[in-house]
Amino acid sequence: MSNFPKIKEAIEYIDANLDGRISFKTIAEKFNFSPYYFHRMFAVIVGKTIAAHIRDRRLQAACVELIKTDNSILSIGLDCGYDSAQSFSRAFKQMYGLPPREYRKQGMEPVVTSADEMIKKFTNRLRGGVYLNPNIIKRGALNIAGVSGDGYKTGEVWESFMKLNREMPLKKKLSDNGYEIRLFDGDTCTVHVGLAVSGEQVDPAYTIFKLPASKYASFDVYVANGYDSENSAMSEWLRTNKDGYSEKLLGDNVHYAVEYYDERFNGSEDGSIVEIWIPIEKI
């Protein structure tokens, strides 16, 4: 679509003006869109409304400020558009699972998707070639608190985790985004599902899986289309990518992959997306 460059500019404009008053009507006028068209197109590409995107970007900026500065919680909250430290803390905890002060102690910066990546993901979907052009991402080590089980009965493992989390809510979670780590050792497939947490001290009913820091090829999977063709396409990319990346194994020749469930996942409905991360390295 010819309007993609302007949508990208609009996303970058929002990022550059998070400390001011931003309305979608003002942005639409700046980039010569009708407000209705801009709001609709933005939501389709980004996967959320403009208001939700601005809120999330401001909170992500707050994370960076918490980690990289000594500014007070109140000052950071005011920068994000909140009128008190209390209202900022409530919104922050709702998004990240812990209050700003605790987040600062953990020292973990958020992963922020750039405007280029947003447009790239959407246009890849339109072309139908998403898996031949993955995003190359880096992720630090993570502690995933959850439940492990038979990789061929993943649904049952998720049900066990959700039941446990209802009965014994997981503390110290970094967000509500889900992780599914699949490990392949010969003919054996094991799966660990859960949420990322700060530290390793969780209720003993949960199992901690230490996901190592790694570089990944990140593929978007559109759930309604199934997984079979996607698996073969990811294998094809590993064989043919021009940057010389190969699969990185875990420990003693254990293959693994990470399925990442964020706000774009909505069950099996059309448009529902799961990210699959394949660990990679250059030899």
Q: Which keywords apply here?
A:
alpha+beta; Multidrug-efflux Transporter 1 Regulator Bmrr, Chain A; Arc Repressor Mutant, subunit A; 9 strands; 2 domains; 283 residues; 41% helix; 10 helices; 25% strand
What report would you give on this structure?
This protein has two domains: 4-106, Arc Repressor Mutant, subunit A, CATH 1.10.10.60; 132-282, Multidrug-efflux Transporter 1 Regulator Bmrr, Chain A, CATH 3.20.80. The protein contains ten helices and nine strands. The protein has helices spanning 4-16, 24-30, 35-46, 50-68, 73-79, 85-96, 100-106, 115-127, 154-167, 228-240; strands spanning 135-139, 142-150, 173-185, 188-197, 207-211, 214-222, 245-247, 255-261, 273-282. Strands 1, 2, 3, 4, 5, 6, 7, 8 and 9 form a nine-stranded antiparallel β-sheet that branches. Helix 1 (4-16) runs antiparallel to helix 8 (115-127). The two termini are 38 Å apart. The model is unreliable at 127-131 (pLDDT under 50).
